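Q: Convert this sequence to structure tokens.
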Amino acid sequence: MSRINIADTAEIVIKDKRFVLYLTEEKLQKRVRELGSQITNDYAGKAPVFIGILNGSFMFMADLIKNIGIDCEIDFMRLSSYGDAKISSGNVTMVKDISCDITGRDVIVVEDIVDTGLSVSYIEKLMKQHNTASVKIVSLLLKPDSIKYDVKIDYIGFSIPDKFVVGYGLDYAQKYRNLRSIYVLSENGVL
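A:
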């Protein structure tokens, strides 16, 4: 088993594929602080429920919550549409549902990445069934060129090209989530 360098390095190799540094830890943390401040201002006087979509959002969610300056609750939901693949299967299944009552509550769904919008579309339908007061979506990353569903992302960390990324909660076959920065598969990719 090889060790990986979790600190910022110019490139990493994963399963004979070359990934180059795309978003540094410093840049990620700066943007997370900005999102936290914006959400704090937008929800002043309210106590929203943040629902993190596992597994990918856990690092972003933890850092975001540290930057929220209002009362709030957190819960988690786990969906699956990828398995171990690099592209979505096109089907969403619920693996873990939330445990709190969100009826009449303001909900902020925390995603790691939105590409086609399939999962967000699924989540929006679920939230309507709970009769929430409001539902907003915050996503660390958005791939605008990949969107296939009519979804609105209310808070966006970074818009990125339609490329495969790993790190800061984002995985490659359920691994490499612990990288502190985000890396993108290089153009030539294979070593």
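The two ends are 19 Å apart (CA to CA).
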